[in-house]
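Q: I'm writing up a methods section and want to include an example of the input and output format. Could you take the sequence below and give the corresponding predicted structure tokens, formatted cleanly so I can copy it straight into the document?
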Amino acid sequence: MIPTLVGITFLTFAVMHLAPGDPAQVRFAGAALDADAQGPSVASAIERFRREHLLDQPLWKQYLHYLGPFDLSERGHPWFGGSGAQPYGGLLAGDLEHELLRPNVSIRAELARRLAVTVPFTLLAVLLSYAIALPLALFSVLRRGSGVDLCATLCVFLLYAVPTFWAGLLLQLCFGASGLSWLPVLGLHDKDAGELGSLASWLDLLRHAILPLACLTYGGFAYVSRQMRSGMLEVMREDYIRTARAKGLPERTVVLRHALRNSLIPVVTLFATVLPALIGGSVIVESIFDIPGMGKYAFEGLLQRDYSIVMATTTLSAVMTLVGVLLSDLACAWLDPRIRYE
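A: Here is the clean output for your methods example:
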């Protein structure tokens, strides 16, 4: 996990700096339009900003400064020519720094606030995906080949093919003020939510969360249900399933008691792919529905060319993805005692 994480940070850092523009240009964009009236002050301010944040240094030095644990800026470690006021910093030192365009805003504090929104949404979407996908897959296996199974398969494939951004816009148009006006489509609370009681506030939050959760859930449950159905149909061809049928056991007992446990192994493995997909999808969903979560924070940082925000959100998403891979491996070993890791 550690070398993978370092590789992700390096590639993200390199690709981000290949994109046109930088934080200095965004920071002084308005002043640059009036550069003729202000003279060389704008150019000197841009140069000073780049020097303070090492934007004028080679890419390898900027990356080592981000990675840490030594601060390579003018205030950094004396070993690297700094004043020693702040010798340590970077990712390895646990320092996510401050926003480049809002120096008084700590990225760590902002991420903690945003994660309090994104993590419950993502986990609830994962739970809903599996809670819907597993019964649907069991139903399809028990009724395999029937018209109901074919209809469910077609509907699930259509859902999986629908892009998230398109589904979000359709839901807004259908259920928002321009359509049926059943549900709110922006934010997590109404503007007067602070005046509501606890129960009314929770109901207001629930109404605001329905459409974003639907967008985060439908793709995951469609994918998991198809994989679960394929896995169970493969298990149904095994010898021990034929033996169970030869003993006269009902088909429902054969599926639920003998086939289900072994078919869960590939579905648990899918957790490693469903979780990062939901994290990535939160960028789109939170931007469409104006939810103040980590996905929207990453999108805003990308628009502002704020390297610190983009690197912090990407690194945190990578950590969550790698943890999901680890948990899926451990769950597979727990489900199948024959699996051993050396």
